[in-house]
Design brief:
440 residues; alpha/beta; TIM Barrel; 2 domains; 8-stranded mixed sheet; 22% strand
């Protein structure tokens, strides 16, 4: 058994930030020696005061392979994840083709991923109106949960479900104690399917303000209220993905106080970007739900502090520049998705640091809580017996995102040109270094 020892004056352990030496072997953390311990006979390295943290876990990623690999792919996506300190990601059932709504489609995705992964990768399945009778097989295939849309997903082969569909599906999820992850937007005041492209008020398709007004906050609050009601009725764990509307926070908070099985996430782009700053025609900022106003987003930060929101995930959903309508700047035609997989840790830390969050908060919201949500008992913490998935980074150093440094298949991302805090030095997956500085 080959042992190595890794030391830092700032190790993010469950007890907080401590000086410690980690003893690594067989892909695991064997011991955590608090203090300046330097074991004899073991290769030893100190990284000084760089932070050693559990590897980041991104619980919401669209990789799009197979079928739409020209949008992204396992090779480029997991390389980008490693470059940003993410050691585990869970991939959504779309926008691959075929979508992951059958066990057979999952097998195709597993085959497509072979030999291409730089980090750990798991998968969700999906529920659509036509696969409810076959959910048992999909749930038995090893997916981490089931994703549903209450509005058009953007992909015709992954149609949204209605309340009636969910009432058929939820007993199946209950049988397996499976989690239902829900894109919560409902057009109108009733749980009806929505149109793919709502009409803007002033018909100016280059206007970000017009696009924002086309997907109002009540779309989210109505959908979240529905899912809270169904979660209570069927006693199923419902996870609200990418919360953007602060108006929904009291609903989530009250549901948790009542002991309902509700969790919720938000994304870095809802925290660090604000509607007031988005230029017209800048379709790289288009996502659904939309990025809202500054005052709204400050409430999301507070909800992360008080536990209303459980963790942060990227919802990385890239597309080629032509599909993002970069030439026309048409928000209504552009693909709705933010490319941000590489920047989860620095983007979050940049805003969090300004608002008094600690390094312990970062580990809680990017590592520990996602691991708990996913049932990954050996990830998200630095403790004996845990997997040696680590990120070594400098929280005091800053950098400007350059296009040439983006590891996503397409370099189109709203993070280009932004200065952020948190420079990655090394990413370790299963005890093996997959990134040193900016090289893989």
């Amino acid at each position: 058994m080959d042992f190595t020892a890794l030391h830092s004056t700032r190790v993010l352990s469950p007890a907080g930030v401590v000086e410690a030496t980690l003893i690594l072997a067989e892909g695991q953390i064997k011991e955590v020696l608090v203090g300046k311990a330097q074991p004899e006979g073991i290769p030893y390295e100190s990284v000084g005061n760089k932070v050693i943290m559990p590897g980041v876990i991104d619980a919401h990623v669209h990789i799009n392979e197979p079928g739409r690999t020209e949008w992204e792919g396992f090779e480029t996506a997991t390389k980008a994840a490693a470059a940003g300190g993410t050691t585990t990601l869970i991939e959504m059932p779309l926008n691959a083709s075929p979508v992951t709504t059958t066990a057979g489609a999952l097998k195709l995705k597993l085959e497509a991923a072979k030999g291409k992964l730089h980090v750990n990768c798991g998968f969700y399945g999906g529920v659509i109106p036509t696969n409810i009778d076959y959910l048992d097989e999909l749930l038995r295939s090893g997916v981490f949960g089931i994703k549903a849309f209450l509005t058009h997903s953007g992909i015709d082969e992954f149609p949204n479900v209605t309340e009636a569909d969910l009432r058929r599906a939820l007993p199946v999820l209950k049988k397996y104690d499976a989690t239902l992850l829900v894109h919560c937007e409902l057009e109108g005041r009733n749980p009806q399917p929505v149109t793919r492209q709502p009409v803007t008020k002033n018909n100016d398709h280059r206007s970000y303000g017009a696009y924002l007004s086309s997907r109002p906050s009540h779309w989210e609050t109505d959908a979240i209220a529905l899912m809270i009601r169904l979660s209570e009725e069927f006693d199923v764990h419902v996870h609200i993905v990418h919360v953007s509307a602060a108006e929904a926070l009291p609903l989530i908070r009250e549901a948790k106080k009542r002991g309902l099985r509700i969790t919720a996430e938000t994304c870095p782009h809802y925290l660090v970007f604000c509607a007031e700053d988005i230029p017209d025609g800048a379709t790289e900022f288009k996502c659904a739900p939309p990025i809202r106003e500054r005052a709204n987003n400050e409430l999301l930060w507070k909800a992360l502090k008080d536990g209303t929101l459980d963790f942060v995930a990227t919802d990385h959903s890239p597309a080629p520049p032509d599909i993002k309508e970069q030439q026309s700047g048409d928000f209504m035609k552009a693909w709705g998705g933010i490319a941000g997989l590489q920047f989860l840790l620095p983007a979050f830390w940049t805003g969090a640091k300004e608002r008094g969050f600690s390094l312990e908060d970062v580990a809680r919201l990017l590592c520990e809580h996602p691991a708990s949500f996913l049932g990954l008992k050996k990830k998200g913490r630095i403790a004996p017996g845990c997997d040696a998935d680590l990120v070594i980074w400098d929280p005091e150093a800053s950098f400007v995102v350059k296009k040439e440094d983006v590891q996503h298949r397409h370099k189109l991302t709203p993070y280009v040109g932004r200065r952020m805090n948190g420079v990655m030095e090394r990413t370790v997956v299963g005890g093996e270094v997959v990134l040193i500085n900016d090289g893989l």
